[in-house]
Amino acid sequence: MSSPRLRKVVFPVAGLGTRFLPATKVVAKEMLPVLDRPLIQYAVDEAVDAGADTLVFVTNRYKHAIADYFDKAYELESKLAEAGKTELLAMVQGTLPPHVRCVFVTQPEARGLGHAVLCARPVVGDEPFGVILPDDLIWNEGPGALRQMSELSQRENGAGIIAVEEVPHDQTDKYGIVDATALSERAAKINLVVEKPKPDVAPSNLAIVGRYVLPARIFGLLESTQPGAGGEIQLTDAIEALLAERSVLAYRFAGTRFDCGNKLGLVKATLHMALQDPQIAAATREFVGGL
Length: 291
Ligand code: UTP
Hints:
Spore Coat Polysaccharide Biosynthesis Protein SpsA, Chain A; two-stranded antiparallel sheet
């Protein structure tokens, strides 16, 4: 029997975004634009592509801009309509398809990614769900990364799926690293998860990146997860506990990831998108070539 399709996706967006200060004093990191669309739009598009109809944003009290962005902009929309600017109007109205609803949950304190995911429990309830960290922007011409993962999970009886990517060996101490046994070209059964191991003790160079398909059981495990490094409740600790109960798969997605949580990643993503845009691709190429 195949497991239910993924309907709910959680976006933990309550972090402080210190690497983009001072901009993030007032602009949520997820609202930083890559070309003309904020990071959160790319993440939402990927969730919708995966079939989600309920988007759960775990925010903090300063991040009203994300709710405003997906809300109706009455004044702007009527001005654009009056002026006959139909293309712009469609763009403003197209941030979210009509069948998709947004739910906002507050994380009262930044107590870590695991705690942020736990805050979504009352909305997610007892069904498998996706998690997208919007600062990992994953671009793919075909199906998005989360859709690839959701399809794999359905084929594998609802197994938890964690996106991984090969990273340079000298960078293992920046990521959660998995030790996994290959099942197919892209999927592997996880044996062990190690948080930020030094390169000489890392079991592999397969790093966890910001996409997860998780069973609801993870909430119970998060509840009993003790704060780890920096006093934060880590999602990887709860995943380790999940591994003791059932199989969890690592999945090497098709697509290119840009780590937009740091400045260089955001610059790379912006250049990449500029080179996809027929109106500015040639001029961008010329500018970059002349640097
Ligand atoms: P990061 O580790 O990138 O932290 O969080 P950050 O605060 O966003 O950014 P820096 O490092 O200070 O620049 C990874 C993801 O987890 C979310 C963040 O919003 C981001 O999507 N997060 C983190 C929460 O929602 N709550 C937390 O308590 C911590």
